C-alpha cells in the first residue's frame, strides 16, 4: 500500500475539503485578503446543481462521501466500483432531497446493500488460483557425505 493513499484515507473529510484550497489559502494569507471558504470540491458539478442555500451543505456531504470512498478503496481487499456507485447515488439523492424533500435512504442501509452485492459478486467469480509447483529439496554436498559415513 502506498503511503500517500494511506494518508489520504486517514484524512478527515473537512480537512480534505479545505486542503484542496491550500494554494488559495496561502495566497489569501500573503495578500491579507479573505480566506477561501471552500476547496476544490466547491467547483464540483454536484455543488453547482445545488441552490445557494445548500452549497455548503452539499460541499461537506460530498467531502464526507469522498472520505468514505477513499477509505474503502485503501483498506478493502477486493477492488470494486460498487461502493463508489452507491456513494454517488447517495449524493444524488441528497441533492434531490434539498430540491423536492424526498427523504433519502440511510447510509447504513445503503452500505449493507453494497456489501451484499460485493459478496454476491465474489461468490460468482472465484479467484483463479495458479497451481503451485513443488519445490525440490536440494541436498547439501556436505550433508550427503556426512550421512554416508
TrEMBL record:
Annotated stretches, region: Disordered: 120-149
Record-annotated Nop domain positions: 1-100
GO molecular function, one term: snoRNA binding
Pfam families: Nop (PF01798)
Cellular-component GO terms for this entry: box C/D methylation guide snoRNP complex; small-subunit processome
Domain of life: Eukaryota
Protein name: Jg9564 protein
Species the sequence originates in: Pararge aegeria aegeria
Lineage: Eukaryota, Metazoa, Ecdysozoa, Arthropoda, Hexapoda
Gene name for this UniProt entry: jg9564
Amino acid at each position: 500500500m502506498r503511503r500517500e493513499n494511506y494518508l489520504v484515507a486517514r484524512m478527515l473529510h473537512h480537512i480534505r475539503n479545505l486542503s484542496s484550497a491550500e494554494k488559495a489559502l496561502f495566497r489569501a494569507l500573503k495578500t491579507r485578503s479573505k480566506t477561501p471558504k471552500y476547496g476544490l470540491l466547491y467547483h464540483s458539478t454536484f455543488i453547482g446543481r445545488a441552490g445557494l442555500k445548500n452549497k455548503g451543505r452539499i460541499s461537506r456531504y460530498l467531502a464526507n462521501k469522498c472520505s468514505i470512498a477513499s477509505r474503502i478503496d485503501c483498506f478493502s481487499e477486493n477492488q470494486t466500483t460498487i461502493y463508489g456507485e452507491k456513494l454517488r447515488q447517495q449524493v444524488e439523492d441528497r441533492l434531490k432531497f434539498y430540491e423536492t424533500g424526498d427523504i433519502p435512504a440511510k447510509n447504513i442501509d445503503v452500505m449493507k446493500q453494497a456489501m451484499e452485492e460485493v459478496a454476491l459478486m465474489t461468490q460468482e467469480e472465484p479467484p483463479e488460483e495458479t497451481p503451485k509447483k513443488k519445490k525440490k529439496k536440494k541436498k547439501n554436498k556436505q550433508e550427503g557425505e556426512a550421512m554416508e559415513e
